Amino acid sequence: MVPGQLVRVWTDVGERKPVPLLAKVIEKDDSIVTIRYLSEDEGVWRYEEDVYEIDSDSIAEKLNTTLETDVGFKPTDDGGFIKVDSDDDYVPESEDESSGDDEDDEEEDFEEEFEESDDDEESLDEYQDE
Q: What does the H/E/C string look like for the chain?
C-alpha cells in the first residue's frame, strides 16, 4: 500500500456485521495503516478531518487506484465528491428493437439436431439388422 491509495476498510457502524467503507491511505508503518474515511454529508462526499490508525488486517479490499473517479465519484468545485451511478449512461433496449431472432435460431437448431438424431436411429436399426 502506498500513501494516497484507496482502500475499503471493515468498519463497525452499529450494524450486525462490519461493513467495508471507502478510505484513503495516509501512511503505512509495518502493520499499522493510517487512513482517512470518505463520508457523505447531504449528498456530497468528503474526507473526514480525523485520521485513524488501523491494523492492516482491517482492510477488506485494496483498490488499485489513488483516484476517486476510478471508483465512481465525480469531483466538485469545493473539493468534495458526488457519487455517480455507474448506470447513468445505460439506455435499455426496448422490446421493439430486440428482434427475438436469437430464440428463433436456437429453436431451429434444436429441431435440426432432433431430425438428425432420428436419421441416426434409422442407421442404427439398419446396422443391427445386418
A: CCCCCEEEEEECCCCCCCEEEEEEEEEEECCEEEEEEEEEECCEEEECCCCEEEEHHHEEEECCCCCHHHHCEEECCCCCEEECCCCCCCCCCCCCCCCCHHHHHHHHHHHHHHHHHHHHHHHHHHHHHC
